[in-house]
Amino acid sequence: MKKIKLKEKIVPQSYDYYFGKPRLEMTGRECLVDGLQSIVEYSNEKITLSLGTQIITFFGDDLRINSFTREGAIVEGNIISMEFSS
């Protein structure tokens, strides 16, 4: 029986987290925002957050900030779209 040598599987390196850099992670009806500097605007339909040199705006229904710390926040609700600006 002939042995077949399998090529090594290429596994991507784990994503490095760069301290001081913004990071977003979407899961279902939530978006984790790391690197938050301040809340610019807050309503049920629109939440705008400052990430230092960038601004992110969430549009949707029943939006709220579920958790807020020095490092970040969790935006929760029916997120319809996001807009990035600088």
Your description of this structure?
By secondary structure, the chain is mainly β. 0% of the residues lie in helices and 56% in strands. It contains no helices and six strands. Strands 1-2-6-5-4-3 form a six-stranded antiparallel β-sheet, with no helix packed on it. Strand 4 and strand 5 form a beta hairpin. The protein starts with 22 loop residues before the first strand and ends with a strand.
Task: Draw up the topology in text.
Blueprint: E1 23-27, E2 30-34, E3 38-42, E4 46-50, E5 55-68, E6 72-85
Antiparallel strand pairs: 1-2, 2-6, 3-4, 4-5, 5-6
Estimate the strand proportion.
over 45%
Strand order of the largest sheet: 1-2-6-5-4-3
Count of helical segments? 0
Number of strands: 6
Helix content: under 10%
Mean pLDDT: 83
Quick synopsis:
This protein is an all-beta fold and about 90 residues long. About 0% of the residues lie in helices and about 55% in strands.
How would you describe this structure in keywords?
single chain, 86 residues, mainly beta
